[in-house]
Amino acid sequence: MMLKQKEGWIEVITGPMFAGKTEELLRRIKRLEYAKKNIVVFKPVIDNRYAEGEVVSHNKNRTKSVNIIKANDIFKYISKETEVIAIDEVQFLDEAVVKILDYLASRGKRVIVSGLDSDFRVEPFSFMPKLLAIAEFVTKLTAVCVVCGAPATKTQRIVDGKPAKYLDPIVLIGASESYEARCRHCHKVYRKPQNYKGII
Ligand SMILES: [Zn+2]
Question: Smallest Cα–Cα separation from 68: which of 47, 82, 83?
């Protein structure tokens, strides 16, 4: 006889900025709300206030969320009855979130998170590779390249009208900066030349 299937897994929605990650997260949350599931939605905050917040997509869809500072704060807002844990912008939490989500999924919770897979240098974003590796389901969304219209998988950082330099700090004081979605070929970071340049 086969064992009864157990609940609990991790879903990650990832990709560059402007790919609709939050929109997809909200779509999944909405469906689970219709199904009357017990859901808690989290959002990391950079400042130090705990507050009721909202997750809002570019299309202005929204849902109520709990603002948290540390991954460990998740435990203050969930109980045995919680069936679904959702987190928007998960990449802004601390690395402890990886083990916490792994634990929660093993305890039968459905975990759904959205977050950037890479930074403006196209390097893996902090602990995200670990989360992607332990997730059961990964959805990698693409945006549209603002330069050529191809599917965009990278986030281009623009500082004072020019592509950001590789060594630019993550936070620049006094500079005007913005972000765009771009494909592999249109993305620029002025990186150091690689050893295998010119082989093919
Ligand atoms: Zn392009």
Answer: 47
